[in-house]
TrEMBL record:
The gene is LRRC51. This is Leucine-rich repeat-containing protein 51. Keywords: Cytoplasm, Leucine-rich repeat, Repeat. It comes from the Eukaryota. Pfam families: LRR_9. It is found in: Cytoplasm. It comes from Felis catus.
Length: 192
């Protein structure tokens, strides 16, 4: 990796855009042409994209098998990936592979089939995650959905395209105290 390539990797670069491509499996990205935007994508000497944004929205993905491998074939610096759009697919869970991209700051997962609110816990390890969408998933119907996400991911500043306010944080903390009991208490209560 040349210093020049590293310095040229930027969020300002247009995204590598595979939206609306009827992609069923991640491996299809290697044979599919990305959409072209107003500005051309820049590439390294090896032919890989220098962007930090990958858009896979509005496809028919139901898993992220081989995601890391395929991303490493497409991007010169996959470790710098900052924005992943997986909205409007058919993902039923949050794949742990997403937690390996420590520079991820924007993650769109709205309009999928995520069933369990606990899936959000996986994202707590992402130190730079600031913007997350999950609306349009079955988990949105669970009681305390917004509060649970804000308690689990206290560093996010935008959730479901709405800014997170001080009042949201206070409400989430009160909700947490009322609904998430310490494990010790839970064990004692179950023993009775």
């Amino acid at each position: 990796m040349s210093k020049e390539d590293y310095m040229n990797t930027s969020v300002q670069e247009p995204p590598l855009d595979y939206s609306f491509r009827s992609i069923h499996v991640i491996q299809d990205l290697t044979s599919e042409e990305p959409r072209t935007g107003l500005r051309p994508l820049r590439h390294s000497k090896s032919g890989k994209s220098l962007t930090q944004s990958l858009w896979l929205n509005n496809n028919v993905l139901n898993d992220l098998k081989d995601f890391s491998h395929v991303v490493s074939l497409l991007l010169e610096h996959p470790e710098n990936l900052a924005w992943i759009d997986l909205s409007f697919n058919d993902l039923s869970s949050i794949d742990p592979v997403l937690t390996t991209f420590f520079n991820l700051s924007v993650l769109y997962l709205h309009g999928n089939s995520i069933q369990r609110l606990g899936e959000v816990n996986k994202l707590a390890v992402l130190p730079r995650l600031r913007s997350l969408t999950l609306h349009g998933n079955p988990i949105e119907e669970e009681k305390g959905y917004r509060q649970y996400v804000l308690c689990t991911l206290p560093r996010i500043t935008t959730f479901d395209f709405s800014g997170v306010t001080k009042a949201d944080r206070t409400t989430a903390e009160v909700w947490k105290r009322m609904n998430i009991k310490p494990k010790k208490f839970r064990i004692k209560q179950n023993a009775l």
